[in-house]
Amino acid sequence: MLKEGELRIPSGCAISGIIDKKGNRFSGGEIIKSIALMHERSNGLGGGFAAYGIYPQYKELYAFHIFYDSLSVKTQVEDFLTKHFEIESAGNIPTKSVPNIKDQPLIWRYFVSPRIYMSKEEIIDEDEFTSRCVIKINKEYIGAYVFSSGKNMGTFKGVGYPEDIGEFFMLDRYEAYMWTAHGRFPTNTPGWWGGSHPFTMLNWSVVHNGEISSYDANRRFVEMFGYRCTLQTDTEVITYLFDLLVRKHKMPMDKAIKVVASPFWDNIERENKKTQNELKSIRAVYANALINGPFSIILGCQKGMVALNDRIKLRSMVAAEKGDRTYVASEESAIKIICDNPDRIWSPKGGEAIIALLECENK
Amino acid sequence: MKTINALDVHYRKLNDSIDSAIKVDKSITLNNVFGQRYIGRGLPKGVKIKIHGIPGNDMSAYMGGAKIEVLGNAQDAIGNTMNSGRIIIHGRCGDTLGYAMRGGEIYVEGNVGYRVGIHMKEYKDMKPLIVIGGKAGDFLGEYMAGGSIILLGLNLAEGEEIVGRFCATGIHGGKIYINGNPDKYKFGKEVEKVSLTDEDTAFLKKHIALYAKFFKKDLSHLKLEYFSKYMTVNKNPYSNMYCSN
Fold first, then answer.
1. Strand pairing of B27-34 and B2-5?
2. Which of A47, A326, A361, B17 is the most exposed place for a label (fewest CB within 10 A)?
């Protein structure tokens, strides 16, 4: 079978996210119920979840989740990992047999700390070292794919309906303070385990409903900074854009949002002089990081959750708040099924981000 | 009146049970609706459905005369290509409400999302109508070809705008009535503001009274002279696009 990056099939999706801003952890059962309600938006060719706060016992270590096509590539990648990382713990990610989930790869998890002194290049920080290693594995080791590489977080995904993938990974047994989920209706690429959402890099994760027409401009832009888009899919490039803007360029989140969903020029003209200058600079410097086309995304990061629509809202998105929790989903019913009587429920405007951050230090 | 519990029922099964139920009793109540699609699709005159919960996308698609009342919010593409009948939503509503609507009436108590009334159209006595109690998002009446939209903008918070940008972009028929006088930049270039005629005033009066009745509100404070009316600049602009006639 041709994989992601080798084939394009031109052609919707479901997304859902929940965060407890106080950092209280809750099981994956709720997010599964939410995404399962939007079953009709997926077609069984991809489902996945990102969970933050699930590995408190290893919170200082990077948690690698890796798909392997064969034992031989596993041996090669483990050889690379041993050279570059101290492996604190390694093992299968526990799964259970679910009738609709077939042809799964080998699914392994490693808790590691980087041997940064192994790097021959100039001093780089641990995150940079780790992300370079992840990019290297995904690019050079055919048949291996690191699909999660953050700290105290993890991605769980595969080919199938999201509710089946959730059951397969037994996510009701994990507890997180933030969950995001995706039900896939693959449009440009065939369904493949690694190609399912969320896409992650370090602590970043993105679930996405839409189609980015600026993909190639965005790809060329991030590749100038060392990223390698190996999957030809728009969600991967969004993940790298945020990693670049916020981690590497140290841009505050609200500015990064203005980069990817910048206001129209005529809207900028109606702002005051100071804001005009700022927005014009952003559009000039980061022209190639503007995301165009229909999208609704939920971005997960260490600090919390950000949900964003394209500027003219070509994909649906509803947000709600109740107590310490913020909810976002493609459909209102997917929120109401797990949260009756929210304090507030609304449809965000196009280009207007829902930013729900942890109010405490990373738990 | 037959009551159906929709909890955990797949949309196909739910719509099948509605089809069987109306053969016996044309009045139905649905409880615990959570996002099931296509409720009321194609249903004829005489059928009345009361929905408790959140009906899913494309509710009342191609509806042919039924009356649907939603006691809750609704999602996207409600009234898609509907032909006739009436929808009353006691809540807010998502995007593309009244998508390509051909006839009938939709009343929404609260706010509506983007692209409401996109490409609604009219033919002879089939004139669709959407009445919105709250505010509307961008692209209200985009590519509108007929029918009417009435936007009341009730209970807006400080700084909240009654309508988004790109209103009536590509309009080539129909009328939009807005309670107020939004800035010109919010409208497409194909639209112009025109004065209300006596006929318009009577039309507004009638449908505002119906809105007040459906949602049990006192709207006696609304002043019709504050309403603006928007129509296409030119009639039938594309008549010579493919052949001259």
1. parallel
2. A361
Q: Rounded CA gap, B155 and B210, in Å? A: 18
* pLDDT values of chain A reduced to their tens digit, one per residue, 363 residues: 555 555 444 346 899 999 999 999 999 999 999 999 999 988 888 899 999 999 999 999 999 999 999 999 999 999 999 999 999 999 999 999 999 999 999 999 999 999 987 666 666 789 999 999 999 999 999 999 999 999 999 999 999 999 999 999 999 999 999 999 999 876 666 668 988 889 999 999 999 998 888 999 999 999 999 898 877 677 889 999 999 999 999 999 999 999 999 999 999 999 999 999 999 999 999 999 999 989 999 999 988 999 999 999 999 999 999 999 999 999 999 999 999 999 999 999 999 999 999 998 654
If one counts the domains in chain B, the total is 1
Q: Which amino acid is at B129?
A: L
Examine residue A315 and state whether it is found in any structural domain, yes or no.
yes
Q: Which residues of B touch A38 (CB under 8 A)?
A: 35
The answer to whether residue B59 sits within a structural domain is no
Mutate: best of B57, B59, B112, partner A, most A CBs <10 A: B57
Under 8 Å CB-to-CB from B86, ≥6 apart: which residues?
B67, B68, B104, B105, B106, B107
Helix (H, G, I), strand (E, B) or coil at A92: strand
Query: A282: which residues sit within 8 A by CB, 6+ positions away?
Result: A255, A258, A259, A262
How far is B124 from chain A, CA to nearest CA, in Å? Answer: 32
Chain B residues whose CB is inside 8 A of the A37 CB are 34-35
Q: How far is A311 from chain B (nearest CA, A)?
A: 10
Give pTM, 2 decimals: 0.93
Which residues of chain B lie closer than 8 angstroms to A334, CB-CB? 35
Q: Among A13, A133, A229, A301, which one carries the catalytic annotation?
A: A13
> With an 8 Å Cβ cutoff, are B35 and A350 in contact?
no
How many structural domains is chain A composed of?
1
A133 classed as catalytic: no
